[in-house]
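Batch job 17 of 40 flagged for manual review because the log was empty.
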Amino acid sequence: MNTFLAGRLRNTPLPRTHGLMPLFEAVVNSIQAVASTMSSVDDGEIVIEIERSSQQTLQLEGVGRRGAPPQEAIVGFRVRDNGCGFDDSNLQSFETLDSDFKALEGCRGVGRLLWLKAFDSVEIDSNFIGPDSRLLKRSFTFTASKGVDGLTVSPSTSTTRQTEVHLRGFKKEYRERAPKTGRTIANALFEHCLWYFVRDGGAPKIKVVDHDEAIVLDDVYEECMHSSAQRQSLTIKGKPFELTHLKLKASTPREPFVAWCAAGRVVKEEGITGKVSGLHGRIVDDDGDFLYGCYMTSPFLDQHVRPERIGFDIEEISDDLFAATELSLTDIRTAVLDSSKEFLAMYLQESRAAGRERVEKFVSQRAPRYRPILARISEEKLSVDPSISDRDLDLLLHKQLSEIESSLLVEGHSIMTVESDETTEHYRARLNDYLSKVEAVKMSDLAGYVFHRKTILDILQKAIERGDDGKYAREDLIHEIIMPMRKTSNDLLEKSNLWLIDERLAFHDFLASDKPLSSMPIVQTDETKEPDLVALNVFDEPLLVAEGQRLPLASIIVVEIKRPMRNDAASGEDKDPIEQALGYLDRIRNGQTQTASGRPIPRSDEIPGFCYVICDITPSVERRCKLAQLTVTSDRQGYFGYNPNFRAYIEVTSFDRLLNGARERNRAFFDKLGLPTNL
């Protein structure tokens, strides 16, 4: 069977964001070459030299730019080691695709294919010990078109073993997405090879050279490690796994992670922020803050890693007949996270307590609607980052509420059915549990509604105060808070806050906000006057029957809102808010009032009227109230009375009285939820 190298390369995937993977493969090969030759890896040495374009950047190119000056593009890498080199066995393996020469080390024999995915060619020069114990030099070029080309073997003039792998022609699509500086490349290499540094055998001396800068990975290790690693063995469905728990210094710019390793290489990393209760980033320790990381190895992972080492051929979930014995990614992930929880338990107690306090404070002060369901959310799901924003915490709790509501919907379809073998006691317990969940959700809805009222009152309080510019808000702002302008009850009743004025306004046949009289279906008129609020109550059937009494058949409510602290009330409908409200009432009656559906109302000219004027009791307003023969309230923050000529009850209410009245009516609900009333 023949092998076509170009076709094999075409079928070998390498994401463009993994442009350094070929370099990592070359370095890991060097580590293995050192380990196979020397009794101690401490005697091994690996040097990675970064090659940059020799083209000089124009001096004008960096003018006006901030930060570090631009560097020449990376065109290649040279990897040198003093390992065993390309002896006959290694060369034969290199020339054999999918070789099993180092299968026991987890190698798949395809690493060199990745070299040609990201680089134009590879040049290899190797001084190795031949069969007769003499040093020989083997050189060749590796390309996609010719494979191994220009192979030569000759006596070496060197006195020591050394192999150099020269990765040439870094392809643009990979180069542009790869790290650009020697420091970031060294850090990426260290993270990829960290397993070798924390394993029992350790790692050779590895150095990255970029022009005059030399970065020793042992120094990077010292900079990153908070303390020594701790190892743990566990068995998952009969398969052995080895975990290495690490405490990295908090200055490391990354999140807590679990690294899935195979063949001594990191195949993938998974962030575990929020997946372990109390783990939300760096961890506070008596010896200094640290970042948690876990490296996982197993023969099972070595066997199931994909040839390109960018993933595993393992099912995410085992849900077939072999689920009891078949190992899935979910099984592995769950077991590793449990081990991480155990390792971090003593460090995360304070974080979990702070997260719970954050939830309690948010629910108490900002979102009491979630209080009834907190007991039904697991501690794991309530373990939040103490620094979480209100927005993100609200989204998290809303998600939990939605899950509870969804589970209730599913459970509700089966709750009324008694299972064939179910006892009465068991069914009663199941029903009671379901009803308690329903009650919690309904209480949550009620709490949300009450808190909405509390928020509206606070907004209104702020709106009637004098601003930084010394001016008061316009009446249209107050109007929008009470009821959106130019809308009717058919448009968006749920967004109105008519309860601020009178709870009974929620019950009406038709309500209009800042709409011309001529546009209202309850009246036949050409008048273009626009009352702030008009409501018509029509009850064709009694809403409440008690001892034979019925509610009134109809009523008309007119509400006028004025700017806070306005003091220009005078005689005339344009200046007197009381006269203005009565004028609207009179026009509606004269327009032969009818129901919103167009049905006539008998004796509509006698429909009782209620006129509410909401404004501050300034001297000019006080004078108009007295002229209208209204009675002052006991707190002197309003006036009220009945005008028999207009058959209308009139109430003039200051903004302070409006707020205080609404707060008093809702105080019992606020107290129940533990909300301050700002009185």
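Reviewer: the log was empty due to a logging misconfiguration, but the result itself is present. Residues 57-62, 538-553 have pLDDT under 50 and may be disordered. Unflagging and moving on to job 18.
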